[in-house]
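Need residues for this backbone.
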């Protein structure tokens, strides 16, 4: 915790977003009451048990996608506090909430755009990934770097895919290629970012790449012309 944030936590202690318990931004009982994410394909929305339907898995660099909860209500507030209100401690609780979804392997985060990291002073996905690694005992490693800084928020799948071309590059020193990789992110919308990151890792030889995210943000259907 930064010195300034420590001072703030002493003068104005965190309170749970849901129940108001002092001393924590999101208490464990409230975290456990978050509704589970639907058992569906997070790319096309069809029913699926591993986050990818048969058709999408066939064309995907991802082995599986696991998401904790829908991006609404308490979950949306928690992510907002972490990303836009400098509540770094929230990442610990989001990371802990993903422990039951995390397979064995090396945990790595999906890097946030560099401009966003400079604005916030941290990469929220990296904080969540480190918390998840500490909770599960899995090793953590930096396997990807982000290139470019185009805004992804609010964009559809086609625009995201175009923006994400060459958005990631592999770290020069990685892990054993036969070791499963678990990519961690805060929110999944179209899975395009996870897909782009997984493609880079598979291209350099990693045999399996799983994805774990805290929340799934569904997009409204397109309006007819």
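Answer:
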């Amino acid at each position: 915790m930064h010195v300034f944030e420590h001072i703030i936590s002493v003068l104005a202690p965190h309170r749970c977003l849901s129940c108001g318990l002092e001393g924590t931004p999101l208490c464990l009982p409230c975290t456990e009451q978050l509704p589970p994410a639907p058992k569906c394909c997070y790319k096309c929305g069809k029913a699926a048990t591993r986050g990818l339907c048969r058709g999408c898995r066939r064309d995907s660099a991802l082995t599986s996608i696991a998401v904790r909860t829908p991006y609404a209500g308490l979950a949306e507030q928690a992510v907002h506090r972490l990303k836009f209100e400098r509540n770094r401690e929230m990442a610990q609780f989001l990371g802990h909430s993903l422990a039951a979804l995390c397979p064995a392997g090396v945990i790595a985060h999906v890097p946030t755009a560099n401009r966003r990291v400079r604005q916030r002073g941290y990469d929220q996905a990296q904080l969540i990934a480190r918390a998840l690694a500490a909770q599960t005992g899995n090793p953590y490693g930096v396997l990807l770097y982000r290139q470019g800084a185009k805004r992804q928020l609010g964009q559809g799948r086609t625009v995201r895919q175009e923006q994400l071309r060459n958005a990631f590059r592999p770290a020069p020193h990685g892990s054993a290629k036969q070791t499963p990789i678990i990519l961690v992110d805060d929110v999944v919308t179209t899975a395009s970012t996870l897909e782009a990151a997984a493609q880079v890792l598979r291209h350099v030889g990693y045999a399996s790449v799983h994805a774990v995210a805290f929340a799934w943000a569904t997009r409204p259907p397109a309006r007819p012309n």
